[in-house]
Write a structure and sequence with these properties.
Layout lengths: L11 E4 L5 H16 L3 H14 L3 E3 L2 E2 L2 E3 L6 E12 L9 E9 L4 H15 L2 H9 L3 H16 L1
Parallel strand pairs: 1-5, 3-6, 4-6
Antiparallel strand pairs: 2-3, 5-6
Helix pairs in contact: 1-2
Length: about 150
């Protein structure tokens, strides 16, 4: 599964003004609502419910919040880069500034798990994380994620 292929350019947001985990989840929900025509509150509630089970922070400043959203077809993604990292409950205690939100239909369990595994693999690469932090435009973020997906497939 290619993470870049799940992510439309309108789902990439490079923004500041977020000062907490709650605000980061709200921003992710708003990005998903905008990109996929979903209700932001529904997405936020689903993200928050999943996060209550345990932090989705992977470490190294990365989190992959995910949720199952009724009415969604397949697996979809949004990307959010924060200007200032926020505490996210990561095991390495490092605050998070890179968030990849993954969303799947409730019945798409296998696709959801494949997307989580692909996201985790891709974002484990230190070089990619640093390039994502330096990217100046959503198109650049998308290109980096597509390139990483292609490299993993080879």
């Amino acid at each position: 599964m290619h993470i870049g292929a799940l992510l439309p350019v309108e789902g990439v947001h490079l923004r500041g003004g977020v000062t907490s985990k709650r605000q980061a989840l709200h921003a992710l929900a708003e990005a998903a609502a905008h990109a996929y025509g979903l209700e932001a509150q529904t997405v936020y509630d689903a993200l928050n419910e999943r996060e209550a089970l345990g932090s989705t922070a992977l470490g190294a400043g990365v989190a992959v919040p995910h949720a199952r959203i009724p009415g969604l077809r397949g697996v979809s993604a949004v990307f959010l880069r924060l200007e200032q990292p926020v505490a996210f409950g990561a095991l390495d205690e490092r605050p998070v500034d890179l968030l990849l939100g993954l969303f799947a239909a409730p019945e798409d369990g296998a696709g959801h798990l494949r997307a989580l595994a692909a996201a985790s693999r891709a974002l484990r690469a230190p070089e990619l994380r640093e390039q994502l932090r330096r990217a100046e435009h959503p198109d650049a973020v998308l290109a980096l994620l597509l390139r990483q997906s292609e490299a993993e497939a080879a």
